[in-house]
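Reviewers of the previous submission asked for a worked example of the structure-prediction workflow described in the proposal, so we include one complete record here. The input consisted solely of the amino acid sequence. No template or homolog information was supplied to the procedure at any stage.
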Amino acid sequence: MLVVFGVGTAITLLRAGTITVETALRAVLSGLLGLVVFQFTVGNVWGYAVEYHNAGGEWTDLPFLAPFVTAGVAGVGVAARTGSAGLGAWTAFWAFVVVAAVVALGVWFVAGYRGAGA
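From that input alone, the workflow returned the following C-alpha coordinates.
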Protein backbone atom coordinates (compact mmCIF):
# COMPACT_ATOMS: atom_id res chain seq x y z
CA MET A 1 0.00 0.00 0.00
CA LEU A 2 2.92 2.30 0.70
CA VAL A 3 4.24 1.68 -2.81
CA VAL A 4 0.86 2.53 -4.37
CA PHE A 5 0.66 5.74 -2.33
CA GLY A 6 4.25 6.63 -3.20
CA VAL A 7 3.78 6.04 -6.93
CA GLY A 8 0.55 8.06 -7.03
CA THR A 9 2.18 10.92 -5.16
CA ALA A 10 5.38 10.81 -7.22
CA ILE A 11 3.57 10.79 -10.56
CA THR A 12 1.53 13.83 -9.56
CA LEU A 13 4.66 15.66 -8.37
CA LEU A 14 6.50 14.83 -11.60
CA ARG A 15 3.60 16.15 -13.68
CA ALA A 16 3.45 19.36 -11.65
CA GLY A 17 7.02 20.30 -12.50
CA THR A 18 7.65 22.65 -9.57
CA ILE A 19 6.97 21.67 -6.00
CA THR A 20 4.89 24.10 -3.99
CA VAL A 21 2.68 23.60 -0.98
CA GLU A 22 -0.33 23.38 -3.28
CA THR A 23 1.24 20.81 -5.63
CA ALA A 24 2.49 18.77 -2.66
CA LEU A 25 -1.00 18.73 -1.15
CA ARG A 26 -2.51 17.70 -4.49
CA ALA A 27 0.13 14.99 -4.84
CA VAL A 28 -0.66 13.57 -1.40
CA LEU A 29 -4.39 13.63 -2.17
CA SER A 30 -3.73 11.96 -5.50
CA GLY A 31 -1.65 9.28 -3.78
CA LEU A 32 -4.46 8.70 -1.27
CA LEU A 33 -7.03 8.45 -4.07
CA GLY A 34 -4.83 5.93 -5.86
CA LEU A 35 -4.59 3.95 -2.63
CA VAL A 36 -8.37 3.93 -2.19
CA VAL A 37 -8.92 2.76 -5.77
CA PHE A 38 -6.25 0.08 -5.33
CA GLN A 39 -7.74 -1.16 -2.06
CA PHE A 40 -11.25 -1.23 -3.53
CA THR A 41 -10.20 -3.08 -6.66
CA VAL A 42 -7.83 -5.59 -5.06
CA GLY A 43 -10.19 -6.11 -2.12
CA ASN A 44 -13.12 -6.91 -4.39
CA VAL A 45 -11.09 -9.26 -6.59
CA TRP A 46 -9.70 -11.03 -3.52
CA GLY A 47 -13.18 -11.27 -1.97
CA TYR A 48 -14.52 -12.75 -5.20
CA ALA A 49 -11.72 -15.34 -5.27
CA VAL A 50 -12.14 -16.34 -1.63
CA GLU A 51 -15.92 -16.62 -1.82
CA TYR A 52 -15.72 -18.72 -4.98
CA HIS A 53 -13.19 -21.04 -3.34
CA ASN A 54 -15.26 -21.23 -0.13
CA ALA A 55 -18.29 -22.29 -2.19
CA GLY A 56 -16.33 -25.32 -3.36
CA GLY A 57 -14.88 -23.99 -6.57
CA GLU A 58 -11.30 -24.11 -7.76
CA TRP A 59 -9.40 -21.10 -9.02
CA THR A 60 -8.79 -22.87 -12.31
CA ASP A 61 -12.51 -23.37 -13.02
CA LEU A 62 -13.90 -21.71 -16.13
CA PRO A 63 -16.68 -19.91 -14.19
CA PHE A 64 -14.06 -18.39 -11.88
CA LEU A 65 -11.88 -17.23 -14.77
CA ALA A 66 -14.78 -15.89 -16.87
CA PRO A 67 -14.87 -12.40 -15.27
CA PHE A 68 -11.11 -11.97 -15.71
CA VAL A 69 -11.18 -13.04 -19.34
CA THR A 70 -14.26 -10.93 -20.10
CA ALA A 71 -12.73 -7.90 -18.39
CA GLY A 72 -9.47 -8.29 -20.27
CA VAL A 73 -11.12 -8.68 -23.66
CA ALA A 74 -13.56 -5.81 -23.06
CA GLY A 75 -10.87 -3.49 -21.70
CA VAL A 76 -8.41 -4.13 -24.50
CA GLY A 77 -11.16 -3.90 -27.12
CA VAL A 78 -12.47 -0.56 -25.87
CA ALA A 79 -8.97 0.85 -25.38
CA ALA A 80 -7.95 -0.18 -28.90
CA ARG A 81 -11.13 1.16 -30.43
CA THR A 82 -11.16 4.52 -28.63
CA GLY A 83 -7.45 5.02 -27.96
CA SER A 84 -8.22 5.74 -24.30
CA ALA A 85 -6.53 3.54 -21.70
CA GLY A 86 -8.70 5.10 -18.98
CA LEU A 87 -11.91 4.18 -20.77
CA GLY A 88 -10.54 0.69 -21.38
CA ALA A 89 -9.75 0.28 -17.67
CA TRP A 90 -13.20 1.60 -16.70
CA THR A 91 -14.86 -0.83 -19.12
CA ALA A 92 -12.73 -3.72 -17.86
CA PHE A 93 -13.67 -2.92 -14.26
CA TRP A 94 -17.40 -2.88 -14.95
CA ALA A 95 -17.23 -5.95 -17.20
CA PHE A 96 -15.53 -7.79 -14.33
CA VAL A 97 -18.16 -6.59 -11.84
CA VAL A 98 -21.11 -7.66 -13.97
CA VAL A 99 -19.75 -11.07 -14.93
CA ALA A 100 -18.52 -11.74 -11.36
CA ALA A 101 -22.00 -10.91 -10.05
CA VAL A 102 -23.58 -13.34 -12.50
CA VAL A 103 -21.08 -16.05 -11.54
CA ALA A 104 -21.57 -15.35 -7.82
CA LEU A 105 -25.33 -15.66 -8.15
CA GLY A 106 -24.94 -18.91 -10.06
CA VAL A 107 -22.52 -20.33 -7.49
CA TRP A 108 -24.79 -19.22 -4.66
CA PHE A 109 -27.72 -20.94 -6.37
CA VAL A 110 -25.82 -24.19 -6.99
CA ALA A 111 -24.23 -24.24 -3.52
CA GLY A 112 -27.64 -23.64 -1.95
CA TYR A 113 -29.08 -26.64 -3.74
CA ARG A 114 -26.11 -28.79 -2.75
CA GLY A 115 -26.58 -27.79 0.88
CA ALA A 116 -30.32 -28.51 0.75
CA GLY A 117 -29.77 -31.98 -0.66
CA ALA A 118 -27.25 -33.03 2.00
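The mean pLDDT is 88. We consider this example representative of the routine output the project will generate in years two and three.
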